[in-house]
Amino acid sequence: MTTDLLTGDFFGYESLLPDDERKDLLALREFLDEKVRPRVNGAWAAAEFPMDLIPEFASIDVVGRAYEWEGRPPASKLYNGFQALELSRVDPSIATFLGVHNGLAMGSIMILGSEEQRQRWIPAMMSMDEIGAFALTEPEGGSDVARGLRTTARRDGDSWVLNGAKRWIGNGTFADHVVVFARDEADDQVKTFVVDKGTPGFTATKIEDKFALRTVQNADLVFTDCRIPADHKLEGGNTFKDVNKVLKVTRGGVAWSGVGCQMGAYEYAVAYAKERVQFGKPIGSFQLIQDLLARMLGNVTASLGMVVRVAQLQEADELRDDQAALAKSYVTARGRETVAMARELFGGNGIVLENNVVRYFNDAEALYSYEGTREMNTLIVGRSVTGFSAFV
Prior knowledge:
Butyryl-CoA Dehydrogenase, subunit A, domain 3, 3 domains, 51% helix, alpha+beta, 392 residues
């Protein structure tokens, strides 16, 4: 097991972790290098998820570290951030799969569910015997989903009946439990439900021909008079403000994944610059290549510094929505720049999957857009700093 800091961690932020959590992070790094890294390009090219890796992830205690559960205290916010970074620097698709299951789906149940509901669903999700998905975005509602959410819920005796559609739902093709947000016909408020795989009236269809995060199984979901038990409505999920309790937490996680994505591309670029020979010299000895590397490293370092501070604010329970929004928008925007410079450094070889950077190049586009586009997060920040809302 290596004890060296990552090539992309130029200021040594990882050393802020306590020894026990750094040991866990190094074990995760070793696992990813041994078990996951050899698989990622093949899975990405085939647009298939390596289901056989799920028990492997379950065996290394990578799920549920953010939560207190059965006497085990939660890991620090900084550790959970570095876990997301570590996953994404190897494969943003795998990081997204776990982010959806671990952060969005389990997080919704942990934050909005009653104690009985947590006990009902969380144990099997914690062991990864059952997988979760999170269904908020709709075919006609992305950035405006808070106001324009069209999926409806109607209370009918001891049941709720859901009608509508969702789109871009990660893990949606195989998830055992899908956290679904629907507008209650009775009071027009957004409520939170858990729909189990196989429920009559619920279908999931894989979205094909996707060229970012290809390993993630995104799905179109349709609910047609889908009847679920009344106790499948999460007790604390009663308005869109409750949805934001989950998104504020996970938006910070996307920012950490954005750091990992650009760090992974940067590390491959450094290695290539040292070994690729042109004009009789390694290209890393040329000024223009060193300039690219320095600019990439600046982006990675600034982004990492920002998310470390986000973790500190989360630890103190002081992170604001506008701070999470700035981190997500800034880091993913810098990520696009970094992966583009990595692709440039590789020249024509940069568009070949075996050299890896084209995967980060494409995946950065998805990170840039999901869980709040740059523009929407900019408006959240802009409202905070000016006092004026520019939302239409």
